[in-house]
């Protein structure tokens, strides 16, 4: 199992990450599509080749073709949106908020899967990318759709752990060169 391989690659000094990795993926209460879509989107957003290589095959095996594509789409579109909207928020000139974005985001309106799943994946990627505006927006859509805070937190925990595991493994690889 790829998850076990990834856990075994985590160094001893990061034992908490190893334990959390097993917990957030191995013991998740999320339905399979939400879980593995979140894992795939976050593995991509983590920018860690090791994390993506290890988790992508299992995600692909647990997702329909449509959900697999939609999770990758969530990572892609939020990679763009998080930079754009985070920058708009951080600039001190509020007039940027009045300008038309002019960026295509069609996949958000028609992701090919249940809107709640896509929103959850988008929220998790936004957590990794640190965009408060996008986090607020996706959290509000999810809450209006009846998604419990615990489910939202579950996706954020997956994002946090995968990001930390990726950074740790990439740092170890760089130090070994």
TrEMBL record:
Residue ranges occupied by any Carboxymuconolactone decarboxylase-like domain in the UniProt entry: 94-177
UniProt-annotated catalytic positions: 131, 134
A UniProt-annotated Pfam family: CMD
Molecular-function GO terms, alphabetical: disulfide oxidoreductase activity; hydroperoxide reductase activity; peroxiredoxin activity
Keyword match Repeat: no
Gene Ontology BP, a term: cell redox homeostasis
Entry EC number(s): 1.11.1.28
Disulphide-bonded residues: 131-134
SUPFAM superfamilies: AhpD-like
InterPro entries documented for this protein: AhpD (IPR004674), AhpD-like (IPR029032), AhpD_core (IPR004675), CMD-like (IPR003779)
Keyword line: Antioxidant, Disulfide bond, Oxidoreductase, Peroxidase, Redox-active center
Top-rank EC class of the record's enzyme: oxidoreductase
UniProt KW tRNA-binding keyword: no
Record field: catalytic activity: N(6)-[(R)-dihydrolipoyl]-L-lysyl-[lipoyl-carrier protein] + a hydroperoxide = N(6)-[(R)-lipoyl]-L-lysyl-[lipoyl-carrier protein] + an alcohol + H2O
Quaternary structure, from the entry: Homotrimer.
NCBIfam families reported for this sequence: ahpD (TIGR00777), ahpD_dom (TIGR00778)
Protein function: Antioxidant protein with alkyl hydroperoxidase activity. Required for the reduction of the AhpC active site cysteine residues and for the regeneration of the AhpC enzyme activity.
Family as reported in the entry's similarity comment: Belongs to the AhpD family.
Name of this chain's protein: Alkyl hydroperoxide reductase AhpD
Lineage summary: Bacteria, Bacillati, Actinomycetota, Actinomycetes, Kitasatosporales
């Amino acid at each position: 199992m790829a998850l076990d391989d990834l856990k075994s690659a985590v160094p001893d000094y990061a034992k908490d990450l190893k334990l959390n990795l097993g917990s957030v993926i191995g013991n998740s209460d999320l339905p399979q599509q939400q879980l593995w879509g979140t894992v795939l989107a976050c593995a991509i957003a983590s920018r860690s080749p090791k994390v993506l290589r290890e988790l992508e095959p299992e995600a692909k095996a647990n997702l329909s073709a449509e959900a697999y594509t939609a999770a990758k789409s969530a990572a892609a579109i939020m990679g763009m949106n998080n930079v754009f909207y985070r920058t708009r928020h951080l600039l001190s000139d509020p007039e940027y908020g009045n300008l038309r974005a002019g960026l295509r985001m069609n996949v958000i309106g028609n992701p090919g899967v249940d809107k709640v799943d896509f929103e959850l994946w988008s929220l998790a990627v936004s957590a990794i990318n640190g965009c408060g505006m996008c986090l607020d927006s996706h959290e509000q859509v999810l809450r209006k759709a009846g998604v419990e805070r615990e489910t939202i937190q579950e996706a954020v925990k997956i994002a946090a752990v995968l990001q930390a595991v990726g950074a740790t493994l990439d740092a170890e690889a760089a130090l070994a060169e």
